Amino acid sequence: MSLDTILASAASIAAIFSALMVIWQRNAVISALFLVLNLGSVAVLFLTLGGEFLAAVQVIVYAGAIMVLFLFVITLLNPAPLKERFASGPVMTGLTFALGVLFVAALMRGIMSLAGAGGVMASVGEEYGSARSIGELLFTAYLYPFELAGVLLMVAMVGAVVLARRQTAGED
Amino acid sequence: MSFLHLIWLIPLLPLAGFVINGLLGKRMPRPVVSGIACLAVLASLVLAVGAIRDLHDQQGLADMLNNGSALSAIGARPGADGFGAVLAPTDPDHGLVLDPSIPRARQIQWTWLSVGNLSVKWGYSLDPLSAIMLLVVLGVGFLIHVYSIGYMAHDEGFARFFAYLNLFMAMMLVLILADSFLVMFVGWEGVGLCSYLLIGFNYRDMFNSARDQSCADAGRKAFIVNRIGDFGFMLGMLLILVTFGSLDFGQVFRGVHVLAQVPGSQGLLTAMALLLFVGATGKSAQIPLFVWLPDAMAGPTPVSALIHAATMVTAGVYMVCRCAALFTAAPLALTVVAVVGGLTALLAAAIACTQTDIKKVLAYSTVSQLGYMFLAAGVGAFSFAIFHVMTHAFFKALLFLGAGSVIHALSGEQDIRRMGRLTRVLPWTFGTFAVAAVAIAGIPPFAGFFSKDSILAAVFYEQPILWVAGAFTAGLTAFYIWRLVFLTFLGSDRVEKERRGHLHESPWSMVAPLVMLAFLATVGGFLGVPAFLAESVPGLHAAAEWLPGYLEPVFREAHVVGAGMGALGFHDPAHGAQVAAGSAAGHGGVTAAGEWGLMALSVLLALAGIAWAWLLHGRAGELAARLAAALGGGYRLARDRFRIDELYDRILLKPFYFMCRAADAFDRFVIDLLVNLVAIATEITGHVLKLFQTGSVRAYALSVFIGVVALVTFLVMS
Amino acid sequence: MDAAMIKEIGEIVVRMLIIFTAVFTGVGYMTLVERRVSAWMQDRLGPNRVGPQGLLQPLADGLKHLMKEDIVPAGAHRMVFVLAPILVLVPAIASFAVIPIAGDAINLQDLGLPWDWQIKPFIADVSVGLLILLGLASLEVYGVVLAGWSSGSKYPAMGALRSTAQMISYELALGLAVLPVVLTTGSLRLQTIAEAQAGTWFGFIPHWNVFIHPFGFLFLLIAIFAETKRLPFDLPEAEPELVGGYHTEYSAMKFVMFYMAEYSTMIANAALMVTLFFGGWQVPGLALSQPWMFLIQVGAFSAKTFFFLFLFVWVRWTLPRFRYDQLMNLGWKVLLELAFINLLVVAMLVAAGVM
Amino acid sequence: MPLVAYIGLSAILFVIGVMGVLLKRNALTIFMSIELMLNAVNVALAAFARHHGGLDGQIFVFFVMTVAAAEAAVGLAIFIAIFRLKKTTDVTEINLMRW
Question: What is the pTM of this model?
Answer without folding.
Answer: 0.56
